[in-house]
Known about the structure:
Chain B: This is Aspartyl/glutamyl-tRNA(Asn/Gln) amidotransferase subunit B. The complex is a heterodimer. Chain A is α/β, with parallel strands linked by helices. Helices cover 40% and strands 13% of the residues of chain A. By secondary structure, chain B is α+β, with helices and mostly antiparallel strands. Chain B contains 15 helices and 17 strands.
Amino acid sequence: MDIINLTAMDMREKLKNKEISARDIVEAHIDRLQKMEEDLNAFITISKEEALNAADIIDEKIKKGEKLGPLAGIPIGVKDNIITKDIKTTCGSKMLENFIPPYESTVVEKIKKADGIILGKTNMDEFAMGSSTETSYFGITKNPIDTQRVPGGSSGGSAAAVRAKEVAIALGSDTGGSIRQPASFCGVVGLKPTYGLVSRYGLVSLANSLDQIGTLGRNVTDVALLLNAIVGYDEKDSTSVNMDIIDYIEGLSEDVKGMRIGVPKEYLNLNMDERVKEQILNSIEIFKNMGAVVEEISLPHIEYALATYYIISTAEISSNMARFDGIRYGYRAKDYETLDELYINSRSEAFGEEVKRRIMFGTYSLSKDNNEKIYKKAAKVRTIIKEDFDKIFEDYDIILSPTSPSLPFRIGERIEEPLAMYKSDIFTVPINLTGICAISIPCGYVEGLPVGLQIIGDKFEELKVLRLARAFEKHVSLGGENIGL
Amino acid sequence: MAYKTVIGLEIHVELMTDTKIFCSCPNEFGGEANTHCCPVCLGLPGALPVLNKAVLEYAIKAGIAFNSKIANITKMDRKHYFYPDLVKGYQISQDDVPLCSGGYVEIELEEGTKKIGLTRIHIEEDTGKSIHTEEGDSLLDYNRAGVPLIEIVTEPDMNTPEEARLFLEKLKSTLKYIEVSDCKMEEGSLRCDININVVDTETGKKTNITELKNLNSFSGAVKAMEYEEKRHISLLKEGENTERETRRWDEVKNETIIMREKGEVADYRYAVETDILPIEIKDEWIEELKNSLPELPHAKKQRFIKEYDIPEYDAGVLTQSKELADFYEETVKYIDDPKQVSNWIMGDVLRRINDEELEIEDLKFKPKDLAKLLELINEGKISNNIGKKVLRTMFETGDSPEKIVKEKGLIQISDEDELEKIVEKVLSENEQSIIDYKNGKDRALGYLVGQVMKVTKGKANPQMANQIIRDMIEEQ
Ligand SMILES: [Zn+2]
């Protein structure tokens, strides 16, 4: 038995049945990691010692017959913008190259409580700004399917690590598609939960009204397993929602008969790779065959989503990046005479191009002259787009779309063209603007490269989304036990 | 020529909640540097603010006390600027939807009551403190970061520095009354910025507004305003104008000094603080808070007039602060002579407090002790003058009046036999005065009483001594 080929669910079962030990699992994955990392660079920090210690504690628990948590023994990757106590958290930036947090994020606390094992911190675009994991200060992460290509971003490290079986499951963060697009590019499953379902305490803010922590895995059940462990109200995050907890594995039926699915006509008319479009159209047929009702719908204001997203997100970015000033922690320039120079030099030297570009953009739209006509107007458009979605969800359970308009592109191909890069988020950003949930699952391959299907649900309808994804995955045998290939 | 001064104020008041505005760190003044801090109030990456409900409660109480309208829906915003004492590069404050809008504070002028309008009251977080050492280092203490503040902005309704002072006094006493702040200017829990300019009422010409900052006391604020008033007028007289600028009061030089030129107006790039959801304030809660408010100064004054039958002036002075009013009421509980208590408090007690800049709560003696002192006087055990001396000792030592009187042997001599012996001796030594008195010079009697007091070191009962002297001379 090759441990790394197991699903997270299977690892857990075999551990409980004492077929394997937690140490076996961790060692197998560390071996794999050491083999793969030279090519992939999916990790910024590998916490080998901590992981082995955690494994031994679990093995001890098993020996004593103590009750195990739901993530017992499962090796997990954590995106490096999620705070880990006493483990370096860099956000992929020179600014936080040596930042070791003295506190814990709520999600990591929950994972540890559930006996999950954190294997390390995964690579990402600097401060999660990017769609290719090329802007990381710690080097580019490569797509395990084709190392000439990007893994997507910004959670590219997490997606690549899951795909390459360096970990079984991983945490990512999604502000405009940063979990779903890399999941699509790496042929794995990635879920962006509803805003407020998972506590953001300890997620380093990119655009705080859009950010959400979510899960990546090689199949839908594994994604649901990790989701189960991290959801719930957190008094440390006022935007987290206090509601009854749902068991996403327990409730994961595979029946989609009669479910009403809408496909926005605006989406299919968009400029996209024809091969991607073909895979999506095939998937729609599959849902019809499974008994779902699929109809064309309209989201009349969706064409404004991308512009609205970039105005709101960069405004929030310029605000959230302000705390990195070289005074209390993080990078401080060596040479400066005045306080202003300390700020300017520290920030100029430690932030990369993309971060600076977005800070400038956001600063511009928040400025006194533009606040009303750009920032506040974007907030109004956001409300109108939300209303479009609300209306659709009165009649439909699910909306389908591609995750990305293109196949995984080559490293370096788009990095010089920010606008082209921004456009690759076209299908994913409306979900963040409206705060609803969506999953990306592999729906087919084009010349060996994966295509992701985005299944979108209303607020707190994760169960519906997961159910449809699970049914599809089983039907086409692309995911599940077949590790997403 | 006639000039009108126009003054508006911006006051920052720290609220006395147990914990800070967005975390559970203690809200206490002082403490070793950087010990009242956590990831939230240090603004560490990933930490999120959670609004302390008590802050809303305290701020709403202030709004109610100042007759403001309380918003039913409000929100928090981010105000951006860079400064080392500001941990996140922005201050969480309120921009376009303040918690309280409108309202007024009434001040008493000779010509009657004047309403000073309030523009708004909003909640926000305080910043840390920079400490600049002699060696030229800058150190930072973030204990104050995240302490809850209300910012109170007035309309430009004050026309003299005195009006501004009365406004500040009233504001302070009200905030202390409702127990939302201790308003200690020296500890920075009340800070005041002043906008002042002058209008030539004949030509309509106005000076540019000067902003006065870093004022450490009400008296400093008044001096700064008086200085600016003169400066603006003299410039107007010369046909010149002031610069739009920020100045501070220099206590040593007794003048205002330029801090920075305004040039361009600061751009705070306001954005919505989406880490905190919009705040809904139900009318029932506002009503509940309204009912929980203690008696406010005006109502207390009216009650004092009625209940204690003291003049309006007395009631006004005694209700200046809650502490003083409480002290008065407590004293009256022990001695049933409200006017006498009022006289003593407004006289010797307040004089000493004002001279030494004490707070009533710093007094070493209790209302019960003052009552006892008055009782000793009323019972004739000590004279009024001895009473004043005893009170002085009470200020210094805090000892009970009985103890002071006993230790210093101040008990009044009211024993007739004893007094007769003393008078006999005094008369035998002052024969000329007896003759003078008999010849109708009343002053001579006063002199003789004075001699008796001198011999007894002031302990003789003056009324009795007076009577015995008359009797003895007549018998001669
Ligand atoms: Zn704190």
